Structures are given as C-alpha cells and as structure tokens.
Task: inverse folding
C-alpha cells in the first residue's frame, strides 16, 4: 500500500496505552508515537475520543460531601433530593461509559487482502491490458 | 513493482497528459472529451476491430513495458510483460511474477510464495459478453508513442459518457492503451505500453481465455440466499474458487461484465477494521467500506451479516457499486452504533435466560 501509517505502532498496542496517554503517564517517545498514530487512524482516534468524553463527563461533576441528614431525614425537600440527582447522573454517565466501552468492535477477521489480490490477478490475468496489475507486497 | 519518477514518466507520456488529463499533482481535470484529441478520420468496423484486437493480444508473441498511471496516487508503475511464442505469458511486477501457460496460471513472489491455478473448462465469453452491456464506436486515428492507433470508445448502452478509450495499434493490431473514466467522464486510470516489440505469432496453441484460468465452473448460483448468478450491472458469475488463506477457509466468486472483472470473497466472522493497514473508511451508496486509495486493482473490505467481504476489481468504484450492494453491509461504525452494540452485549450478558 502506498501509505502505511501504522508502521511504528499497532492499533492493539496503542489502545492499551490510550488511558495512560490521557493521564500523561507515558514516555515522551510513546506519546509522540501514539499522537502520530491517532492522527491517522480513525478507529483509534474514535477510541481515544470516547475515553476522553467519558472522563471529562465524570470530572466535570462537582465534588460533594453528602450531608448527614441525607440518610436520616424522613422529609425529602427538593434541597435534599439534589445529591440523589447528582448520584443518578454520575451513575448514568458511568453506565453510558461502560456501554460505550463494551460496544467497541470485537471483530477478529483481518482478511488476507494481498493474497486475495494475487488470487484475483492469477484468476483473471488472461488479458494483460484489460486487467492492469499493480500488486504491492 | 518499479515506482517511476513522475516527471520522467510524464515526459514519456506527454500525450497522455493532454488526452487523459492527468495533472502532475495527480488531480484530474474532468471531464475529458474527444475534442481534445487531434484525431484523423478512419472508417472501420469498431466491433470487429475490437474482437480482432483481443484475438491478436492472445495469438501474437510480444514483449514490452506496460505502464499504469492511477490518479489517486499520484503514482506511476511499470511492469514487464511478455507473450512468448510457446504461448506462455508473464507479467513481472518486480515483487510478483504472474504467469499463464497450457498448465494453468501461477504467481510467484520474490519472497518465495507460490500460487497455482489449474486450467478450467469454462467457455470463452469473448467480446460478445462485452457487447451485451457496452457499445463500441470508432473515433478515428490517433498518434501514440508506440505509433498510429485506432481509438475505440466503449460506452455503456443507454449512457452518454464513455467508460473506456481503447487504442488498437495499426501496425500490429494489438490493444496498446486503455484509458478508464468514471461516470462523470473523469479519467481514473491509464494503462499503456511504453515500449512494445512483436515476435511473430503464437503457433499451435489455443490461447487461454480469462475464464479458462478459473479452477472450476460456477457450482452454485446462490450464496447465503443471495442470487449471485448475475449481479446488478450485468456482472455474471464466471467462476468460483475455494482456498484457505491465512487459515481462513473462504471461497472467491469471480464476476465479469465482459469489460471488468470483480472478485468477491466472503469470510465468516466480524471484521477487525482497526488492523487494515493503510485503509481508509469511506461511505459509498449503502456500503461502509475500507478502501486503499490509489491501489490497482481496487481492494474493498466491509462487513455484513456476520461475514467479512473482500472485493478486488479493476472497475471504477461507481461502476461496480450496484453489484457490491447485493451483499449485506453493516451500519456505519459510529458512536450510536457502538452504544447500540454495547447495550445489546450488556443485555445479552445480564439476561437470566441466556
């Protein structure tokens, strides 16, 4: 192929380090490799964006200290319900993040495209000019 | 494969720059029309001329250098081709040597890989199949680096825009140049002999046809409930091969509309699109497919209904798209489809009756 953006890192190795990459916990060299990879790989860029969105959503929540009466007061005024709403929101974000993470592609098939090209040319190569060949291996 | 410096190739193909409208940066000035050519009138029967040329390409011994110019690269590649007097044909791309003789077709790589296809007994569909879908007209005489040539224009019946310009060398009767256009009339590829030397006729041998290299006749006209005997666009099933590539049992269905060839190989299992090196995800019609821009022949990969499909073709993508859409295609990968898939998996996992 003319363009090989994955020469340095495979998608699998990049995805294993995306979380650490966001936390700035990878070496400078790894960070450059990962940044270069995700700039040219749509699948890994989408993975990175998904992780980033989920984290940003969780981190944007205010940190709360639940008041003691949250669990003791029989009266539920709107003011008392706010922590429950926030907890529900946190839970929703966590659930959405989990569903997003679980929904990633789990396909295992990487078709042997180059071999199939050779097959095609071998099968149909009777007319050289009518079947141009440009196989790169 | 031998990459060629573009300026040098463009010098050699100065005429091509004018006629096919390939620009130095690989862009296309579309559409191209015959008015740009300095054609001389010539009264010939176009259909007979094409049939004779195809026959000559199989019965004439020759050797030469074939150049392929694709617009998406921008890229220029050369290969050495030879049709020896004993009927053996070879194409040397640099990394692969493709051959065809009385025993069948074969391919050998410079890394020691070897592939063989025994000859089959399929009929030669010849130019008749091409003429069912396309009409061929003569546009006149043109001057090429290889000498004067008749220019034949191939247009799909019912359409106005030419799909191909085929040039037939006057002195040898060989097809020496092929210019391919998309449905807007924009040039997408040029294949031409840069040098050509004939060496008499191939004696005592019925030259192999395209279909005769296929291992077997189509043994089925149905795949997974889909009628594949003839796909939209008059792509007829001309052969089926079975193979085990990379430990993946698969079959390849080979189709032809008389001008272009299309191979489709379904493999059971979901596609891992993240590991298709160099491919880009594109949306064409109802298909969401991975494609390698600039590759010839075209390589297309998509998934649908629990299968991964690989299509290889020399046709412009717009010409073959209706045929590809006969096969199932999953929705485009995106946030919503990922959420839906994740929800399905969570429910599947937690569902107590599973």
Result:
């Amino acid at each position: 192929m003319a363009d090989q953006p994955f020469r340095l890192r495979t998608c699998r190795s990049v995805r294993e380090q995306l979380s650490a990459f966001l936390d700035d916990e990878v070496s400078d060299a790894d960070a450059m490799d990962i940044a270069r990879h995700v700039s040219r790989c749509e699948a890994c860029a989408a993975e990175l964006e998904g992780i980033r969105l989920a984290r940003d959503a969780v981190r944007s929540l205010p940190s709360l200290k639940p008041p003691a009466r949250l669990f003791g007061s029989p009266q539920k005024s709107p003011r008392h319900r706010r922590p429950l709403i926030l907890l529900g929101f946190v839970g929703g974000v966590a659930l959405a993040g989990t569903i997003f993470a679980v929904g990633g592609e789990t396909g295992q098939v990487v078709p042997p495209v180059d071999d199939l090209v050779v097959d095609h040319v071998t099968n149909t190569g009777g007319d050289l000019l009518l079947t141009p060949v440009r196989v790169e291996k | 494969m031998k990459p060629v410096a573009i300026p040098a190739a463009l010098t050699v193909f100065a005429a091509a720059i004018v006629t096919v409208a390939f620009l130095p940066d690989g862009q296309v000035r579309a559409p191209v029309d015959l008015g740009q050519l300095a054609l001389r009138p010539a009264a010939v029967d176009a259909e007979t001329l094409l049939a004779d040329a195809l026959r000559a390409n199989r019965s004439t011994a020759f050797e030469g250098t074939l150049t392929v110019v694709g617009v998406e690269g921008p890229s220029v590649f050369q290969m050495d081709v030879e049709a020896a007097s004993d009927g053996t044909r070879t194409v040397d791309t640099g990394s692969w040597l493709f051959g065809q003789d009385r025993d069948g077709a074969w391919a050998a790589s410079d890394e020691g890989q070897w592939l063989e296809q025994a000859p089959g007994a399929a009929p030669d569909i010849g130019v008749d199949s091409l003429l069912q879908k396309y009409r061929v007209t003569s546009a006149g005489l043109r001057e090429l680096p290889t000498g004067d040539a008749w220019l034949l224009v191939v247009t799909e019946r019912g359409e106005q825009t030419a799909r191909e310009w085929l040039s037939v060398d006057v002195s040898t009767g060989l097809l020496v140049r092929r210019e391919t256009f998309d449905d807007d009339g924009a040039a997408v590829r040029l294949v031409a002999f840069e040098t050509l030397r004939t060496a008499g006729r191939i004696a005592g041998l019925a030259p192999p046809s395209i279909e005769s290299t296929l291992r077997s006749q189509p043994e089925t006209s149905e795949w997974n409930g889909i009628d594949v005997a003839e796909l939209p666009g008059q792509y007829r099933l001309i052969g089926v091969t079975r193979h085990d590539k990379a430990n993946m049992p698969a079959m390849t269905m080979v189709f032809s509309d008389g001008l272009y060839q299309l191979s489709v190989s379904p493999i059971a299992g979901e596609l891992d699109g993240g590991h298709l090196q160099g491919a880009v995800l594109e949306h064409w019609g109802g298909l969401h497919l991975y494609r390698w821009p600039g590759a010839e022949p075209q390589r297309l990969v998509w998934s649908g209904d629990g299968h991964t499909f690989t299509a290889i073709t020399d046709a412009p993508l717009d010409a073959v798209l209706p045929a590809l859409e006969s096969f199932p295609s999953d929705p485009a990968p995106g946030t919503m489809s990922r959420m839906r898939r994740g929800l399905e998996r969570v429910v599947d996992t937690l569902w107590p009756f599973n």
The radius of gyration of chain B is 22 Å. Chain B is about 15% helix and 45% strand. Residues 216-336 of chain B form a domain with the Phosphorylase Kinase; domain 1 fold (CATH 3.30.200.100). Confidence is low (pLDDT under 50) at residues 1-30, 120-125, 205-216 of chain B.
